[in-house]
């Protein structure tokens, strides 16, 4: 019997709002990462180090062993837009531990933004560039329809 291919599902506003609420993160920050990553469910982007990023939140393949222990498969991260956003928010929450709730998010803005940059890279140069891009995207893209950003027309 041939395996049934996974159904690629888009990201919806409810996915973003649910993930933001679950992990106590500002919803605009998740929108900023989505806009910065600029990819879609089912899309793979190869990195120079041999790893690859998957789907709308650009989940790096280095997370797959950890996610597998949690019962989350590669196909879920790659093709399920809502699951991809949830995983991205979970990874971000691990970085932002202690900075998530809105009233504490900017108590230490330098640390907060450094941790946002850690979502992409701990290397200072790449971290700085990424957090600048996320901050700019969050300002510009916050009210843009997800369907326009991620191809659910």
Q: How many beta-strand runs?
A: 3
Q: Strands of the largest sheet, in order across it?
A: 1-2-3
> Unreliable stretches, pLDDT < 50, 5 or more residues?
none
Strand content: 5-15%
Q: Count the domains.
A: 1
User: Considering DSSP H and I runs of 4 or more, what fraction of the residues is helical?
Assistant: 55-70%
- Taken in chain order, the helices and strands follow as HHEEEHHHHHHH
Give the biggest beta sheet: 3 strands, antiparallel
Terminus-to-terminus distance = 33 Å
SSE-based structural type: mainly alpha
Oligomer: single chain
Mean pLDDT: 85
Query: How would you sum up the global shape?
Result: globular
Number of helices: 9
Rg (C-alpha, Å):
15 Å
Structure in words:
The chain has about 150 residues and is mostly helical. It has one domain. The protein contains nine helices and three strands, in the order H-H-E-E-E-H-H-H-H-H-H-H. Strands 1-2-3 form a three-stranded antiparallel beta sheet. Helix 1 runs parallel beside helix 5, helix 2 crosses helix 8 and helix 7 packs across helix 8. The longest helix has 18 residues. The protein is globular, with a radius of gyration of 15 Å. It starts with 12 loop residues before the first helix and ends with a helix. The model has no long low-confidence stretch (mean pLDDT about 85).
């Amino acid at each position: 019997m041939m395996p049934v291919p996974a159904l690629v599902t888009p990201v919806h506003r409810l996915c973003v709002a649910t993930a933001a609420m679950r992990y106590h993160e500002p919803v605009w920050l998740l929108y900023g990462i989505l806009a910065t990553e600029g990819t879609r469910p089912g899309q793979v982007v190869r990195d120079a180090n041999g790893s690859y990023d998957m789907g709308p939140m650009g989940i790096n393949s280095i997370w797959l062993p950890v996610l597998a222990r949690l019962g989350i498969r590669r196909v879920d991260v790659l093709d399920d837009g809502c699951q991809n956003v949830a995983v991205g928010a979970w990874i971000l929450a691990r970085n932002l531990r202690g900075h998530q709730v809105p009233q504490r998010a900017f108590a230490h803005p330098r640390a907060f933004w450094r941790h946002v940059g850690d979502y992409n890279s701990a290397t200072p140069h790449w971290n700085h560039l990424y957090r600048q891009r996320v901050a700019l995207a969050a300002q510009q893209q916050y009210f843009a329809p997800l369907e326009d950003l991620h191809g659910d027309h």
